[in-house]
Specification:
The strands form six sheets. Strands 22, 23, 24, 25, 26, 27 and 28 form a seven-stranded mixed β-sheet that branches. Strands 13-12-11-16-15-14 form a six-stranded antiparallel β-sheet, sandwiched between helices. The chain contains 39 helices and 33 strands. It is elongated, with a radius of gyration of 58 Å. By secondary structure, the chain is of the alpha+beta class. The two termini are 85 Å apart. Helix 15 runs antiparallel to helix 16, helix 23 packs antiparallel against helix 24 and helix 35 packs parallel to helix 36.
Length: 1222
Amino acid sequence: MEPPTVNPRIDGGDGRDQDAAKFGDDVPSTRSSSQNFQSLTMIEVLEQDSRPAMVLDLEVDKTCLNLKPVFQNRALRETHGLIDILTGDVPPDLYGQPVSSTYSAFKTWALDATTAQQPAGFLYHGMTWTSMTINKRWRMVNGIKERQQDRLTGTFSTARWGPKVDSVLPLRKESDAVELAAEISDADRKSVSATFLQQALGTTHHYLEFDSTSTCLPADTNEHIKLFRNLDWAKTPLGPMKSWSTELRHTANLLMGTPTPAVVLWGPELTLLYNEAYPEIVPDKVPGLMGNSVRNAFPGSWETWEPFFQRCAESGHGATFEDMQLFLDRGFGPQEECYVSFSHAPVFDDNGLILGWFQHITETTRRKVAERRMATILQIGERTATARNVNDFWPQLTAGLEADICDTSFALLYSVFEDSTTHSDSDSAAAIDSEGIGTKKLQLEGSVGVPKGHIAAPAQVNGNDLAGITEHFREAHQTGEPLLLQVEDGTLAEDLVLGLHSREFLDPCTAVVIIEIVPTTGYPSHRNTAVGYVVLGLNTRRPFDSEYFHFIQVLRRQITTSMAAVLLLEEEIPELEDRSLQLQNFADCVPVGIFVLKYSAECPDGNYVYRNDKWYELIGAHTDSESTPNESPIWELMHKDDYDEVKKSWTGLMLSEEPCTKSFSFRVPRMNGAPVEDDPDPHWILTYAFSILDGEGKLNSIIGSLTDITEQKRAEDTQKLRKEEALESKRQQETFIDVTSHEMRNPLGAILLSADEIISSLQSVQCKIQEADSTLQEVLKNSIDAAQVIVDCAQHQKRIVDDILTVSKLDSGLFSISPIEVQPTTVVNNLLKMFGGEFASAAITQHLQIDQSFHEQKIDRLLLDSSRLLQILINIVTNAIKFTKFQETRTITINISASTVQPTKTIRGHDYLPAHQCREDLTAKPEWGDGEVIYLEFAVEDSGRGLTVDEMQLLFMRFSQAPKTHVNYGGSGLGLFISRELVELQGGQICVASAGKHKGSDFSFYIKARRTGSATDYPARERGYSIYQCDAQSAYAVRSAIEHAADGASLRKSAPKSLQFAEAPTLENTSRHALIVEDNIVNQKVLKKQLVNLGYKVSIANHGIECLDFLKTTRFSKNHENNGTDLTIVLMDSEMPIMDGLTCVRRIRELQKVGALVAHVPVIAITANARIEQVNDLLLAGMDDVVSKPFRIPELIAQIEKLETTLNKGTHAKIDSVKIGV
């Protein structure tokens, strides 16, 4: 916004003052009114006021959105951007301003004509604004800059607050102001006008007073300002202070307010003004400098400075000097060494002419001298660190001291050594000897700035006959601190330093410091013993103050530490050489090749610095060979298959930017002259090498070893061969077992099915001829009994095959434990349902007891292997049934409890059997999660025949039974052995207890489980538990256990309806259609006949291809959904020619994915392959379930019905838990 231009003396055309006209029509237009207005000189006062001020028209501004000043004084117009803030065009600075001080609030306050004069004012934009209303229309607003807290330091500005206006200028009326204005110069009129305006407005607000050129000074003015004001400036080129220009006044005030040393050089004469801090720089020149010309103040330096001032004046630019060396008289001497940095800037007037120069000065003496001295100490440390013995140490120390020409005017270095030829009986000698010097000699090892033969520096002296400067060594030894000697105080003889000058300033040296070198570390022979002395001539132009003394102390510690390191190294070198020789002799004797390579810029490929005899032997090089690693004959002898890997490792070792280690092996020929590829039994060499880098990260050396590992490789090959042979033997054994099992199960299946058919047929006939001849009835009964014997024998043979397979898995260590999420109570309830028929047929009462501990632990779902748990329970319950069903009292009780602590005794207080071998904690594996460990305890109590102590000791052993029990009860003697193994695999223990014969038995065990997370953590395990859905072997385990527990007769009596032999086809089964995919014709016929007897329609396929062709004609095939053949189930063998069962079922599932088969085809595997891996393979391939041969028709029908029910519910879920446990 462009500020309006106001001329206070422009006369209007109507005879009235135009400025007066701006204040409204209330002002009369007569001549007298105009004269009255002009006599007020209000416009003049406002224009000359240094505070921003404006006048508002209340009648106009109240209707405007923003303020519209009718008048702005010069201070407001010249304050950049302030008018835009006051009119609301630019937001204010919020720093230090109350939140309530918005522009809207400021405008409301400024236009409020009803309020009286406000001494407190309004804080806005960092200024306090006051106002006054004239004639109820004109509002005068002015602002005063508030003192704000510094944003960075948190301190307040250093400006001095002046007293109240009425205490400085007690003016009350215009005549007083006019009278005072006549007495002072025009230059002071501004301050008078400001004061008058403040009095006229009646304000009592404080203002800032910092004009050191003002006529009136506060009582607390400091001495330097008084000196500045009291100087007779009329006698200087600047003239009286009241005649000074505004620019000079401003520059002088800036100078006096600067807290650091500064000067002003004003006018052509370069008249010098300085502030209060400047005398610290040149104390000898004060006070004669103030008002003096720089030419007169510094006559000796003007010749140097005059060209500098001339260049600056010609260019109009200032300059900056860093660390300028000056020699000033500051108390130590007329030429004390000092350093200053200063900036030299011109001061211009309004026309761009140079009026003077402002110099800001910073003393850097302490920093500059400290940096120089620290550089000396560092250089001495670096130089002496290269010394390997004392003879090397002194030249390096001399060179380090020689580099500092300022603080080391001269130097003498003496070593102390034993003098076995010098003896003295004098008292003084004895005293010196007690000091550690008398029996020793001093040898001058080096000097700086001291001419040869000088009196102060004898080349060699005895400890009891000290001369020259060495006479003071005894005193230095006694004090234990650096010894200061000065000519001035008489402690140093003047002739000792006669002719010795500062190497930098050429002044005579009159002070020295003696430093005794006494190592405090290292070997006892040198510890706390003086080994040398250093004499330093001090800087002739610096005082020996605390900083200088500190430098000497640090220098002493550096020299002492370096000397201790050299002495320690000197004494260790012979020992190290002996050790090195011993190591070399040892390396030459060991049967390992050792080499050391050194790398440098001159030899980037490396140079061998050591190789033992074994290295030459293994590499095949001559002992006089000097080849580099890249030229070694080993590269040509190496097997070509090893070359690339060895080259890669070696290159990586050389190029690594960090220390690294590499190991690699390669083959070389054993036969002389023959390529390694043709050598049937080559040498194997293992190389181990590591790199060492220097301080710059470059390769310094490589150290490595070569070992002949031929015998190790042979052993590895032998071991590998044996392992392969063992694996092959195991594979052949498994194949043999698989083939044997397969060949035994296949005919057993046909036998069982045929026997079942005979029994079924004979029972049907027996029912129809109940009234026939008794002889025929007897024949039928005997035939049925004979067929039942066949069934029992086949089942017994099957049990033996199953137990042998399980024991084989346990012995090979391949039995797996696979956890799933399950409810333990559900497992037990399903077990009881499974044996419900057995319990009923044998009139056995069964009970399930859940211990209180189970409820206290809030057990719901746990992670455990439910199939193995079920197998254990089946074996134990099977035994309980066998030994209880012939007793008068027949009861079986199952108890469940839980604990977070591993049990040591059973629920009844019996001790568990110790584990017969240490086993891995399977619950620590990742698939078990990290839930809390829970120990589940089970106890099965029966009222059976009981056991003796001897019988119990043999019970869990392989092929062991209670004596004669196999005669009455059957069995292989493996069931309880397998149960113990399964319990211990799950982290548990088992035991049996019995009070004796006919008093029942108590089988107890516990297993380890873990709590689960939320159900979403185990998506594949959410389904309800089923005895057919717990693991890949669960179906086999359940069916096998049922057969162990039940003979044929009881099975027929107690089996569920779905498992009983059907006497005739039912209407429900007439719509079922089964496809048998089997290559064995006998199995085809037997199974087909049984299914047909149950009302099934049966089709036959001899292999997988025929099965796929048949599926194309069914409703499962695309485009045949309405007119295709109905198919209920596919019963598929696994081992078939042309296309086996695994391949066929995979193809079926692929056809389902691509849409060629429009629905899920139910497939049950009918196979003699019963190992867990084989069952898993079938399920993973796509089988819905697996039925192992031999099987009973009721078992198969139960599986078919179960699968059909699952599919009808639309929740087909193959046994995924099996896959998880694979």
